[in-house]
């Protein structure tokens, strides 16, 4: 594929199927900002679709063969697009090149100094921290993030600086397409069970990603996470690869000396290895929880690897105040805070519950959890339930299928039963519309309510707040 912006570029007049998706919309927006004539379709209108239209993209609601312009140079898809999608079938019949989202993103990064952020958890937060802090320093990076920073469509920007920060998704092995100057690997765990059968397959996939780092580039990787340590052992010694570790481990190149919680923020102290200047730095992370603090340290280490002075980057990290769906405060009503969490893997669920516990004070933590994907629930349902036991009470909805068909015998009962075995206060609710009333009856002033999961559970936050505000509450 020619670099984006050349005369022979297939991304000159691209059509995106599912353009409103978190990953697709960012690539489409950057292309539009670079002058490409972007079109796309999605199943429904949304604020993200509106933001894309404001960026100059033509967006159709519903899939139709007529949506694809006669002079379209490519059709861009993600792994979520089924082979029988009408527009995809039409593109193949017309001989229009079909480009995977990851190939399009790789083309966008060509000619820049890319930082690719990988790992089973924390990619969106860490990418966002880097994008915001580098922007604060006036470096004007380009970035593509898997979630909005604030307003709809803020998941991506074309900047005039030389740095390009992007999430590197391991779920479908598409991160093998990128050639970063600096790669971050936050953690390595078994997930995406439809594509990976074992931890060995996961490690092999991450090894391939590490092999894509440009000669003379750097791998920034956790010194604390067991899966990451195993990966470090596998790749250390590769010619032309600089490995920088971060974490609480005594041998870490950026060693975390302390993480002190202060309500919904943290103060972090690190010591840099001599190769990075040898300084001791203390800085603020404006979101709660140890895992978010470690994400900030990963961002600091990556910036240092790229030559950004740590003494300047550390205070700039405080300018990151969160991303939508990552412990995002939706509002307060009747003395109850309602917070939205994207957590859907057991490790993420436990981390967010531990983080929010620190800000709950004497109040209770109540969770509305929606399991995501039949394949994930089949493999990790028990662990999800065990993690939910950290809440004071949970309401568990039916599984959100996303792109998957049902699996016989796999239901949210797998999560509920596991939570109950841990002595948790857990309630099954099959009627999503009944949740606001149910939570209004449970919540008391001072409590925190988390809507948690990667599906449409996020839409319940405003409904819960409205019910809490109603006179009958």
TrEMBL record:
The lineage of its organism: Bacteria, Bacillati, Actinomycetota, Actinomycetes, Kitasatosporales. The keyword GTP-binding does not apply. Its main location: cytoplasm. Its EC number is 6.3.2.8. ATP binds at residues 119-125. Pathway: Cell wall biogenesis; peptidoglycan biosynthesis. It catalyses: UDP-N-acetyl-alpha-D-muramate + L-alanine + ATP = UDP-N-acetyl-alpha-D-muramoyl-L-alanine + ADP + phosphate + H(+). One of its GO terms (molecular function) is ATP binding. Residues 117-302 form the Mur ligase central domain. PANTHER family: UDP-N-ACETYLMURAMATE--L-ALANINE LIGASE, UDP-N-ACETYLMURAMATE--L-ALANINE LIGASE-RELATED. One of its GO terms (biological process) is peptidoglycan biosynthetic process. Keywords: ATP-binding, Cell cycle, Cell division, Cell shape, Cell wall biogenesis/degradation, Cytoplasm, Ligase, Nucleotide-binding, Peptidoglycan synthesis. Residues 325-455 form the Mur ligase C-terminal domain. Residues 15-111 form the Mur ligase N-terminal catalytic domain. InterPro entries: Mur-like_cat_sf, Mur_ligase_C, Mur_ligase_C_dom_sf, Mur_ligase_cen, Mur_ligase_N, MurCDEF_pg_biosynth, UDP-N-AcMur_Ala_ligase_MurC. Belongs to the MurCDEF family. Pfam families: Mur_ligase, Mur_ligase_C, Mur_ligase_M. NCBIfam families: murC. It is found in: Cytoplasm. Cell wall formation. This is UDP-N-acetylmuramate--L-alanine ligase. One of its GO terms (cellular component) is cytoplasm. The keyword Nucleotide-binding applies. It is an enzyme of class 6 (ligase).
């Amino acid at each position: 594929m020619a670099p984006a912006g050349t005369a022979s570029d297939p991304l000159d007049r691209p059509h995106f199927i599912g353009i409103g998706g978190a990953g697709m919309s960012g690539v489409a927006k950057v292309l539009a900002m670079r002058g490409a004539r972007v079109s796309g379709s999605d199943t429904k209108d949304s604020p993200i679709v509106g933001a894309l239209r404001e960026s100059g993209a033509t967006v159709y609601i519903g899939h139709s063969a007529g949506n694809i312009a006669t002079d379209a140079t490519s059709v861009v898809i993600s792994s979520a697009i089924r082979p029988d999608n009408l527009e995809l079938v039409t593109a193949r019949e017309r001989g229009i090149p079909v480009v995977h989202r990851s190939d399009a993103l790789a083309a966008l990064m060509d000619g820049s100094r890319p930082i690719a952020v990988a790992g089973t958890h924390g990619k969106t937060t860490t990418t966002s921290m880097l994008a915001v802090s580098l922007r604060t320093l006036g470096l004007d990076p380009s970035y593509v993030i898997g979630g909005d920073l604030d307003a709809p469509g803020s998941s991506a920007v074309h900047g005039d600086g030389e740095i390009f920060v992007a999430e590197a998704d391991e779920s479908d092995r598409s991160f093998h397409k990128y050639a970063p100057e600096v790669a971050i690997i936050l953690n390595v765990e078994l997930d995406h069970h439809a594509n990976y059968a074992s931890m060995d397959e996961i490690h092999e996939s991450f090894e391939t990603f590490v092999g894509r780092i440009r000669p003379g580039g750097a791998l920034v990787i956790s010194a604390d996470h067991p899966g990451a340590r195993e990966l470090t052992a596998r790749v250390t010694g590769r010619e032309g690869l600089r490995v920088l570790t971060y974490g609480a481990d005594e041998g870490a190149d950026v060693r975390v000396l302390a993480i002190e919680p202060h309500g919904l923020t943290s103060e972090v102290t690190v010591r840099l290895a001599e190769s990075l200047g040898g300084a001791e730095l203390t800085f603020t992370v404006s979101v709660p929880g140890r895992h978010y603090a470690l994400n900030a340290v990963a961002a600091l280490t990556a910036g240092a690897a790229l030559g950004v002075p740590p003494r300047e980057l550390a205070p700039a990290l405080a300018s990151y105040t969160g991303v939508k769906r990552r412990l995002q405060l939706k509002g307060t009503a009747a003395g109850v805070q309602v917070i939205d969490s994207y957590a859907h893997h057991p490790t993420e669920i436990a981390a967010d519950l531990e983080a929010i516990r620190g800000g709950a004070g004497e109040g209770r933590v109540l969770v509305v959890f929606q399991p995501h994907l039949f394949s994930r629930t089949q493999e990790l349902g028990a662990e999800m339930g065990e993690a939910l036991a950290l809440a004071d009470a949970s309401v568990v909805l039916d599984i959100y299928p996303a792109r998957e068909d049902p699996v016989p015998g796999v239901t949210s009962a797998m999560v509920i039963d596991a939570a109950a075995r841990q002595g948790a206060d857990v309630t099954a609710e099959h009627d999503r519309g009944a949740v606001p009333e149910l939570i209004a009856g449970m919540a008391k002033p001072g409590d925190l309510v988390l809507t948690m999961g990667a599906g449409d559970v996020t839409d319940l936050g405003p409904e819960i707040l409205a019910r809490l505000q109603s006179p009958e509450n």
